[in-house]
Each structure stands twice: as C-alpha cells, then as structure tokens.
Amino acid sequence: MRAIVLSAGYGTRLWPLTEDRTKPAIPILGKPLVGYVAEYLAAYGIDEIVVNLHHRPGSVRKALGDGSQFGVKLNYVEEPVILGTSGAIDNTREFFSKETFVVVNGKIITDIDLDKAFQTHRATRALATLVLLPNANRERFSVVSKQDGLITGFGGMPSVADEAPLMFTGIQIMEPEIFKYIPKGVFSHSTTDVYPQAIANGERIAAHVAVGRWRELSTLQRYLDISLELLKEAGNDISAGTGCFIDEGADVGEAILWDRVQIESGAHIRRSVLADGVHIHNGETLMNCVVVPAALIAGSIPPEKSMKGHLQGENFVVPLAV
What we know:
Layout: E1 2-6, E2 27-28, E3 31-32, H1 33-42, E4 48-53, H2 57-64, E5 73-78, H3 84-90, E6 101-105, E7 108-110, H4 114-124, E8 128-134, E9 143-147, E10 150-154, E11 166-174, H5 190-200, E12 205-209, E13 214-216, H6 220-233, E14 238-240, E15 245-246, E16 251-257, E17 262-263, E18 268-274, E19 279-280, E20 285-293, H7 294-297, E21 310-312, E22 315-319
C-alpha cells in the first residue's frame, strides 16, 4: 500500500530551529521527526511512500535517505510553489490513482491503531476516513463535527462550552475517487476545499474516533515538552547528538542537545534545546529556552508567527514559558 507524508510546510512557529531545515527533518531524540512517521506506516505494511518537499528540501532528503533505514521506499516530489495539504495530493495523483491510500502529516508521533481506522473505512464504505481524537484539554486544534459516524463539518478553535470536542490527527485514508474533488494544479486544503464540497455532494466522509498517544510538534514549546516527555519515558535526563561535549563541571539536566554542542564547566542548563553547533561558556545559565548559534540566523528576517528571541553572546536565545 502507498502513502504520502506531508512535509512541505515552513515550520514558522518552530523557528529558529527551522532556519536550516524543514519541520519534519528536526531531530527528536536523535531521529528525524518524519522518520517516526515512516516507521509508523511501515509497521502497517505501508512501504511505498511519497514525501512532498518545499522549504529546505535537502534537509528531509538528508534525514531520510532512500527510506531503507525506516523500512520503506521513498519517492520525493518537490513543490516549487507550496500547494497545501490537498494540492500536494493532486501533485502526486498518478501515484495514487489505483488503490486506497493513506495521508499522514509529517509532524506527528503516534501509536494510534491504523488497522482499526481501516476497519472503519471499509465498514462505512467511505470516500475518505479521518482519524480523530477527543480534545479533552481543548488545545488549539480545529473542532471536527460528526453525526452517525460521518463527518459533518469543520469549525474553529474549541471553547469551554464545547462538550468533548474532537480534533483531526492529520491521518487520513482515501479512495482514488477523492481526486474528483481536488482542484488541479492549484493551492488547496483538504478540510476547507475538498471535504466540504464532497460532503455537500452526498459523499461519505467517515469519522474514526481513535484512542492512543498522539503528539504534534508544531511549536517550540511543544517540541521541548514532548522531547522531555519522551526522554523521561526512556529513563533519561539528557539527549545528546554526535560530537557533543559536556564538561564534568557543568550542571546540565532536562536538556535536548543536537549535534556538536559544547558546554563548559560552570554552565547551568535546564529545560532547554541547544541546536547544532551551540557553545555555552563558563558561567552561563540557560533555562526554559531554545538556543541556536547567532551565525545561523544572521541576516534572516524572523517569520511572522515565530517567537521573539535575543542575542546572547555568540548565540540566539528564544525564551519559553516557565
């Protein structure tokens, strides 16, 4: 079976970590985020995968290679102009024209049972099936409405008044007939341009309400929190990439170190992400922040949705919530 992993986004809310790479290429405990998605699909026998690329395409190619290390065969498709979630599918329609296929967002880590989603898809004879989860904490994910097992619409952000709102996980199962509703050669999104049209035309768009763990890494705060959560589950306090050096006189804990990070004696680090090549000097204290070398972002204009940061010596530091 085939799938597409949506990986073309800019990752503006993850800037400056996405200055030199796209969001799915960001490492999570030493493995690229999109690698978790590839392994997830491979576990269900989905081993022919298209990855769409736009921002920093080489970063995903470098992270995934040919896919063999994750148990899949990869095909890369670059978008010179970003096409949106369903525009990306249109751009690869020849690859998906013959059988049921899967669409997964490239920024998630999950253990949701995909086989059960397929059971729902087949039982409802749906044109497409969206995998949903209860949004018990009312996080800022659009509310999805359903009735009698079918999607009826997509709303705004959840409010306190919403009873057990449902949210879309970014996992979809589709039939090739969905292409009737995807505009050709233009930007489009599935939840705004495709599914509403299909539903209005009487098509069955199924809702599979899943259980399981689901982590979506779209902001710096979520990246830090989820990385530390995974680190704790593994029984560790620090994740360090290749070529890192931590002096025995440094006080470092709850820290995510990418590659070639150097931390001198007397430094104090807590709940922080240190990107490639960061050098922390004697006496420096960092807490609840993301740090990249200042040289990495020199001359760059921060994206509109990015968090504010400041120069601190030879580094650029973005403070996070305490």
